[in-house]
Design brief:
This protein has 310 residues and is α/β, with parallel strands linked by helices. The protein folds into 2 domains: 2-106 and 290-301, ATPase, nucleotide binding domain (Nucleotidyltransferase, domain 5), CATH 3.30.420.40; 119-285, Nucleotidyltransferase, domain 5 (2-Layer Sandwich), CATH 3.30.420. Helix content is 35%, strand content 20%. It contains 9 helices and 12 strands. The chain is globular, with a radius of gyration of 19 Å. The two termini are 16 Å apart.
C-alpha cells in the first residue's frame, strides 16, 4: 500500500511516501505566507515521480471537523484553508479521498504505531515549537470530544489569570509564556535582554528560538527564560496527566534535539507536582521526531474505506 503523507506545518511543508508502513521518501520545503494548494499538489506529484497512491493523509495545525475532511480553525494560520474540503481536493488531485487530522494527534499516532510509545494505549503528547501542541489517547483511541477540540488545546491552559490575551482568545495561556512566538515577542518588547552569546545568535539569524535559550543557559537572561519555560511546560504536562492518566508521556518538537538537557529536568518537575497517588509516567522523546506526523497521518489514512470513512 502506498500512501502520500502531507504535513502542513507552521513554516514548512513536509511530504512523505509510506509504503506498507515504511516511510520510504521524505521532502521538506519552505511555505510562503501566500502559498496555494496548487503548490502542494505539484510538490506531492514531484515526490511520487508519477506513481499512483492508495491513500492520502493530510495533517494541519488546528481544529479538524468530525468527518476528518477539513480545517475548521487555526489561529493566525492558513485562513485560506478554513472550511476548504481537503479530502475532496485530494480526490480531485490524486484520485483518493484524504484523511485530515490535527498534526499533534497525527504525531501521537505515529509514535504509538511504530515509534517511542509503540504498543501503549494511554498516552499524552506535548510538542514544543512555534506554539505548544498537545494530544491524548485513552484505551488506544484518540481523544476528540463532541466538537473535535478535546485533548489538543492544553497549550492554551491558563497559567496566569491576569496574563496577556492570547491570539486564541483566552488570557494567560501557556503559549503566551513558553513558545517560540512568545519568546520572540518578549525580545521585541525588551522584556528579554539577551546576553552576549544570545545576542550574537540574534544578530546572525535575525531571530532566536527555544534551542538558543537552552544552548546559552550559562547567561543569566537565558537561564531565567528557560526557568520560566520549564515551569510552564511542567504545568501543561501535569494538567494532561491529571486529566488523562497516561502510562507514558511523549515530549517532542525541534527543541527536543536538546532532550539530554530538557527531559530530565522536565521529568523531575512533573513528577514532583503530580497528585500524591498519581502514577509517575516516564517522559520520552521520539528517536525521529521530524517524521512523527508523516508516519501517523499515513497510518490514519490507511484505515479509510472506499467512501472515505475511517
Amino acid at each position: 500500500m502506498r500512501t502520500a503523507a502531507i504535513d502542513l506545518g507552521g513554516t514548512t511543508l513536509k511530504l512523505g511516501v509510506v509504503e506498507d508502513g515504511v516511510l520510504v521518501a521524505r521532502t521538506e520545503l519552505p511555505l510562503a505566507p501566500s502559498f496555494h494548494l496548487d503548490q502542494v499538489a505539484t510538490a506531492v506529484r514531484a515526490q511520487l515521480g508519477g506513481a499512483s497512491v492508495d491513500a492520502v493523509g493530510i495533517a494541519v495545525p488546528g481544529i479538524v471537523d468530525a468527518a476528518g475532511s477539513r480545517l475548521v480553525a487555526a489561529h493566525g494560520k492558513y485562513a485560506g484553508l478554513h472550511q476548504v474540503n481537503l479530502s475532496e481536493w485530494s480526490l480531485d488531485e490524486f484520485g483518493r479521498l484524504a484523511r485530515v487530522e490535527n498534526d499533534a494527534r497525527a504525531a501521537l499516532v505515529g509514535e504509538v504505531t511504530d515509534g517511542i510509545a509503540a504498543g501503549a494505549r494511554d498516552v499524552v503528547l506535548l510538542t514544543l515549537g512555534t506554539g505548544i501542541g498537545t494530544a491524548s489517547m485513552i484505551g488506544g483511541r484518540l481523544v476528540r470530544g463532541r466538537h473535535g477540540h478535546a485533548g489538543i488545546l492544553n497549550g492554551h491552559v491558563t497559567v496566569a489569570y491576569d496574563g496577556r490575551r492570547c491570539p486564541c482568545g483566552n488570557i494567560g495561556c501557556a503559549e503566551t509564556f513558553a513558545s517560540t512566538w512568545a519568546l520572540r515577542q518578549a525580545v521585541g518588547r525588551g522584556e528579554l535582554v539577551p546576553g552576549a552569546d544570545l545576542a550574537e545568535r540574534l544578530h546572525a539569524h535575525g531571530s532566536i528560538g527555544i534551542r538558543d535559550i537552552v544552548e546559552t543557559r550559562h547567561e543569566p537572561a537565558s537561564a531565567a527564560a528557560l526557568e520560566r519555560f520549564y515551569g510552564v511546560w511542567a504545568a501543561v504536562l501535569v494538567t494532561q496527566c491529571h486529566a488523562f492518566d497516561p502510562e507514558v508521556v511523549v515530549v517532542t518538537g525541534g527543541v527536543m534535539r536538546s532532550a539530554d538537557v530538557i527531559l530530565p529536568e522536565l521529568s523531575r518537575r512533573v513528577h514532583d507536582r503530580l497528585w500524591s497517588s498519581s502514577f509517575r509516567p516516564p517522559l520520552v522523546t521520539p528517536t525521529d521526531p521530524a517524521t512523527s506526523v508523516l508516519r501517523g497521518v499515513a497510518a490514519l489514512a490507511s484505515t479509510l474505506d472506499n467512501e472515505g470513512h475511517p
